[in-house]
């Protein structure tokens, strides 16, 4: 008999168990963070702000009742910190730079954030951010121990993919906060979905820790999957802000038309950044990630070339990566195409993220292809 | 949707005059409704313009993504023939319709091809003019300052004792040092930076074309074949050696790369415990290969992700299985067959089936030549007797069993119809019968021998269990180009999305009181906080060279709401009114006309126009005395002075990755 079968090393069950405990702990911490975020929004609702309406009416008066594009001509050489409108003062006696909003955008200030200046709300907000930071560390430890327990990258199946994905999404959020971006308001929608994602992971998708089938042994896997996860996490943050943009934009439009939005809508919307800021943030997220997503697909093609002997074979996963890529290219084009900016582009951005989601969940669950391996 | 929030590019630009033009090479949108009036040529040009417009490119992109969807949901011929057949069998009404629509081969269907061919025609039609325009912009110079710098997205001003000439000199030096392309035109310094953005964008779109061509070429010239090799056997790359072979339309047999290799040993390891017991962990095919007709022998381990690569031809490990060695003897004990028989796995645990065919040499007990056939069923790890069906429990050969059922007669191999070596055609064969008159079957342990009924001979399952590995040998020219295109695409994309193209103008003019008023303004292709930051940094540096005049207050903030807006420029007007006598005005004011006029194409016109406007503006600006507050009176009396209503400038707008 010439067969030579070496027996693979048993996985370290102990570490796998530690990992599970850490993931559950992270969920508990996120749950606390979720309550703190709720408290922040609740306390924030005490302060009555109506900056948007005020800004729109003053702009309206100054613009001599002109609508739409005429606002371009508003005397908005102000120092308001609306999307792109900011003053940057230099030290010494250097002159101040005055910026003005682009033609055609509403001159609306950014909202003050979930706490809306309420001290108690702000305290809860800070607690929430600290808890999210803690949850991130715990969850990251869970992912790392999982990786150690299987002695490979922690993305061999959908359970591992999910826990890694949510860790990275929280990481992106924290990184944006650390970069002093105005993203604290994303906390609540983000943590809500992170909890759902983890809940799904530990119940439906759970797979015992194990090693990979040979097709998954490749350093291109590291590159391809890690960038895919990162892109997804960043696209997700972009999608949340797109959705917020759509709400805020209709809110502003309603005010502009002279309508009175409901109390709840007013309370929430007044605290979000201006629609122009949200729109720009979305664009920057998506534009920054698009090249990386392109790279992800190419890395995947290289891996497919090594594993299956063809770099592109229209496998469902490949098809959906391609569709996602084209959808984001549509979004970017829409931004550069007259008549497609604003809401239409935002819808495209949402569709594009929908494609990403379908590629991740839908294709694994509903469509069979070469991308299904261990467990799910 | 398009009324209040969106603002076509044209409007934005009209606001800034020609200074904002040419910041990108994106085509200007024209309304789709503008139907041509002229005959065939007019129609043709209209269609071409539509096809190459951004709107149609967007629609085609949308169509492309929509069109790709069915292929992921409906089984595709190239990927999974079995499923296609299955689908056709179960959906008898739908299938013919799908067939007609090409839905079983979406990615090579007429309509899908039409979408991407149109898209790429559009792409080429877009790239060519944009490239020319870009070359024109590179050869031209940044356009002159607009009349009113206060109207630009970022603006700053101060008064200084330095003379306008000194300020201009300092500004030019500063901007050149910061790698701006800058020159003095129309009484102001114009500078521009970030041309790489446009270059990156063009590279990206060109790279898309390169990738498509490489992909198409790969499909046309590729070859792909499969070969099953037993441990100890070899393969050399000629057409006859393949088990199956397919190639693109333009493939030539002479293109087959000469090489050969031998499978020394195959090695697999599997998970032994846990719920995924039996899942494969590593597969290794140890091979010895030679390049060319008779090169030196080299050794290599081929793994799933690590093909053997020889000059662009790759041999991938795609499958493996067992080949039990079987010896057949006739009634007199003479060996008539002895070979390792490759069996095809039917599950992941190594359960395998196949056929053993004894073609010649066998004579029955009467001495009559006859053929023998056996259906073979093999498991590497047998569960144990009485454990239900014979399916393998583990993929490694821990307790192998070979079950055989025996036939004799004619194998039907000379009928001219190609035969599947793994299947027995029993139409012209008779069963060997056991004592009950049933088909004679037996399950053999390794080393065991079974006797055929009535002294017809014996079959031995030898103690030599070989493995085989199957390889896919493929050659796809153009994949290097595809990869190169992909890398260029990413680089171009990064340039296109991360580099900001922006312009800066510096205008220094002596006010009525003899003090120089410096104005600086910045404009980006899209508004970005970076433009203002950069302008602030530039202003700070220039300010060092031309410090504020003593009486001017630092910070130069004017009172809020000084003058209400009463902009005379109507929004409906897409372009500023042309200056009635641009040439005369430009010449009269003695501006740097040469720089503007030597610029070719549209860039030259822009520069000319705005130079003229700026020049015409000059005297008016000089006439109005700057206010004592430090801010100069705006060059146009109707334009508002900057106002600062909010004293907290530290709130910087949210931004993600910088554009
Ligand atoms: C087929 C016709 C096409 C045309 C006419 C076209 C045209 C353009 C133009 C003019 C821009 C620059 C926009 C600007 O400067 O703001 C642009 C940007 C871009 N194009 Fe295309 N393109 C085409 C096809 C494609 C395709 C097939 C893709 C990829 C799937 C693509 C992806 C992009 C991307 C990602 C950008 C950058 C967007 C930005 O700068 O914001 N384009 N395209």
UniProtKB/TrEMBL annotation, chain A:
Organism for this UniProt entry: Streptomyces longispororuber
GO molecular function: heme binding
InterPro entries: Cyt_c_assembly, Cyt_c_biogenesis_CcsA, Cyt_c_biogenesis_CcsA/CcmC
Pfam families per the UniProt record, alphabetical: Cytochrom_C_asm
Residue ranges occupied by any Cytochrome c assembly protein domain in the UniProt entry: 155-368
Membrane topology category: Multi-pass membrane protein
Protein name per its UniProtKB record: C-type cytochrome biogenesis protein CcsB
Cellular component, GO annotation: plasma membrane
Keywords of the record: Cytochrome c-type biogenesis, Membrane, Transmembrane, Transmembrane helix
Superkingdom in the source lineage: Bacteria
Residue intervals passing through the bilayer: 21-43, 127-149, 161-179, 186-207, 219-247, 287-305, 317-334, 346-367
Signal peptide (UniProt feature, chain positions): none
Annotated localization: Membrane
One BP annotation, GO: cytochrome complex assembly
UniProtKB/TrEMBL annotation, chain B:
Biased composition (Acidic residues): 554-566
Keywords: Cytochrome c-type biogenesis, Membrane, Transmembrane, Transmembrane helix
Membrane-protein topology: Multi-pass membrane protein
Record's protein name: Cytochrome c biosynthesis protein
Keyword field contains Transmembrane helix: yes
Record keyword Membrane present: yes
Main location: membrane
TM stretches of this protein: 56-74, 110-132, 202-221, 480-499
GO biological process, one term: cytochrome complex assembly
Localization per Swiss-Prot or TrEMBL: Membrane
Bias (Basic and acidic residues): 1-16, 568-580
Pfam families found in the cross-reference section: ResB
Ranges where the record places region Disordered: 1-28, 544-659
Domain named ResB-like: residues: 54-535
PANTHER family reported for this sequence: CYTOCHROME C BIOGENESIS PROTEIN CCS1, CHLOROPLASTIC
InterPro entries assigned: Cyt_c_bgen_Ccs1/CcsB/ResB, ResB-like_domain
Domain of life: Bacteria
GO cellular component labels: membrane
Biased composition (Low complexity): 582-604, 612-631, 638-659
């Amino acid at each position: 008999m010439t067969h030579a079968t070496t027996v693979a090393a048993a996985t370290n069950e102990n570490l796998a168990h530690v990992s599970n405990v850490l993931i559950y702990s992270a969920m508990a911490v996120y749950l606390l963070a979720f309550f703190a975020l709720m408290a922040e929004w609740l306390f924030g609702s005490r302060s009555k702000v109506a900056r948007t309406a005020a800004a729109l009416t003053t702009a309206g008066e100054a613009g001599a009742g002109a609508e739409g594009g005429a606002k371009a001509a508003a005397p908005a050489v102000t120092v308001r910190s609306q999307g792109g409108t900011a003053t940057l003062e230099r030290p010494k006696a250097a002159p101040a730079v005055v910026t003005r909003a682009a033609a055609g955008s509403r001159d609306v200030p950014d909202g003050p954030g979930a706490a809306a200046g309420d001290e108690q709300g702000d305290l809860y907000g800070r607690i929430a951010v600290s808890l999210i930071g803690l949850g991130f560390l715990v969850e990251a430890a869970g992912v790392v121990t999982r990786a150690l327990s299987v002695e490979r990258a922690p993305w061999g199946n959908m359970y591992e993919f999910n826990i890694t994905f949510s860790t990275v999404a929280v990481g992106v959020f924290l990184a944006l906060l650390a970069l002093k971006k105005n993203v604290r308001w994303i906390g609540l929608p983000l943590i809500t979905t992170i909890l759902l994602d983890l809940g799904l992971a530990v119940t439906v998708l759970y797979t015992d820790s194990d090693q990979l089938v040979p097709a998954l042994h490749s350093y291109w896997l590291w590159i391809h999957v890690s960038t895919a996860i990162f892109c997804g996490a960043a696209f997700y943050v972009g999608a949340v802000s797109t959705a917020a943009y759509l709400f805020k934009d209709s809110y502003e439009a309603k005010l502009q038309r002279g309508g009175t939005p409901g109390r709840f809508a007013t309370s929430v919307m007044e605290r979000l950044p201006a629609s122009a800021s949200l729109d720009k943030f979305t664009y920057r997220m998506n534009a920054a990630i698009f090249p990386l997503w392109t790279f992800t697909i190419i890395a995947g093609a290289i891996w497919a070339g090594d594993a299956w002997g063809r770099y592109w074979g229209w496998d469902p996963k490949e098809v959906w990566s391609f569709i996602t890529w084209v959808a984001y290219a549509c979004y970017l084009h829409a931004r550069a195409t007259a008549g497609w900016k604003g809401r239409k582009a935002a819808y495209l951005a949402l569709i594009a993220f929908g494609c990403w989601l379908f590629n991740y969940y839908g294709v694994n669950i509903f469509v069979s292809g070469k991308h299904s391996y261990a467990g799910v | 949707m398009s009324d209040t929030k969106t603002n076509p590019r044209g409007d934005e630009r009209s606001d800034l005059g020609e200074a904002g033009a040419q910041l990108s090479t994106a085509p200007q949108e024209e309304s789709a409704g503008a139907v041509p009036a002229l005959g065939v040529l007019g129609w043709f040009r209209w269609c071409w313009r539509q096809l190459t417009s951004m709107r149609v490119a967007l629609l085609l992109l949308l169509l492309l993504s929509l069109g790709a969807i069915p292929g992921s949901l409906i089984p595709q011929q190239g990927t999974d023939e079995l499923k296609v057949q299955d689908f056709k069998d179960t959906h008898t009404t739908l299938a013919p319709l799908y067939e007609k629509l090409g839905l079983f081969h979406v990615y090579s269907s007429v309509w899908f091809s039409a979408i991407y061919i149109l898209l790429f025609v559009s792409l080429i039609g877009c790239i060519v003019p944009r490239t020319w325009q870009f070359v024109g912009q590179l050869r031209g110079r940044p356009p002159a300052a607009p009349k009113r710098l206060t109207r630009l997205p970022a603006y700053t001003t101060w008064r200084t004792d330095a003379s306008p000439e000194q300020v201009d000199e300092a500004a030019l030096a500063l901007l050149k040092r910061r790698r701006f392309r800058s020159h003095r035109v129309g009484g102001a310094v114009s500078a521009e930076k970030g041309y790489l953005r446009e270059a990156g964008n063009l590279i990206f779109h060109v790279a898309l074309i390169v990738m498509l061509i490489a992909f198409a070429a790969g499909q046309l010239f590729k070859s792909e074949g499969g070969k099953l090799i037993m441990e100890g056997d070899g393969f050399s790359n000629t057409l006859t050696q393949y088990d199956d072979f397919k190639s693109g339309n333009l493939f030539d047999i002479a293109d087959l790369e000469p090489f050969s290799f031998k499978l020394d040993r195959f090695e697999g390891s599997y998970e032994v415990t846990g719920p995924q017991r039996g899942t494969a962990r590593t597969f290794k095919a140890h091979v010895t290969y030679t390049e060319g007709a008779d090169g030196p022998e080299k050794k290599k381990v081929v793994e799933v992700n690590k093909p053997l690569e020889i000059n662009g031809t790759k041999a991938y490990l795609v499958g493996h299985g067992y080949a039990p060695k079987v010896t057949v003897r006739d009634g007199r004990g003479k060996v008539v067959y002895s070979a390792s028989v490759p069996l095809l796995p039917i599950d992941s645990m190594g359960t395998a089936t196949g056929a053993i065919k004894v073609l010649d040499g066998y004579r029955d007990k009467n001495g009559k030549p006859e053929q023998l056939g056996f259906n073979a069923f093999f498991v590497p790890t047998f569960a144990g007797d009485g454990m239900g069906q014979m399916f393998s429990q583990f993929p490694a050969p821990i307790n192998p069993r070979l079950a055989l059922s025996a036939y004799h007669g004619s194998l039907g191999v000379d009928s001219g119809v190609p035969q599947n070596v793994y299947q027995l055609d029993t139409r012209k064969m008779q069963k060997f019968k056991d004592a009950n008159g049933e088909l004679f079957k037996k399950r053999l342990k390794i080393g065991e021998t079974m006797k055929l009924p009535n002294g017809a001979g014996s079959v031995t399952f030898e103690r030599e269990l070989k493995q085989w590995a199957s390889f896919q040998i493929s050659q796809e020219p153009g994949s290097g180009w595809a990869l190169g295109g992909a890398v260029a695409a990413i680089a171009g994309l990064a340039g296109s999305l991360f580099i900001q193209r922006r312009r800066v103008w510096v205008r220094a003019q002596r006010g009525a009181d003899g003090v120089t008023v410096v104005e600086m303004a910045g404009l980006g292709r899209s508004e970005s906080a970076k433009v203002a930051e950069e302008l602030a940094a530039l202003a700070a540096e220039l300010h060092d060279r031309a410090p504020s005049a003593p009486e001017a207050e630092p910070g130069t903030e004017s009172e809020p709401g000084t003058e209400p807006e009463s902009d005379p420029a109507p929004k409906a007007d897409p372009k500023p009114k042309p200056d009635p006598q641009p040439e005369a005005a430009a010449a009269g004011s003695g501006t740097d006309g040469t720089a503007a006029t030597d610029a070719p194409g549209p860039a030259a016109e822009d520069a000319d126009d705005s130079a003229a406007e700026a020049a015409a503006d000059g005297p008016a600006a000089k006439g109005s005395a700057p206010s004592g507050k430090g801010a100069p009176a705006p060059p146009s009396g109707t334009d508002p002075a900057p106002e600062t209503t909010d004293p907290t400038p530290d709130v910087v707008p949210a931004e993600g990755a910088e554009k």
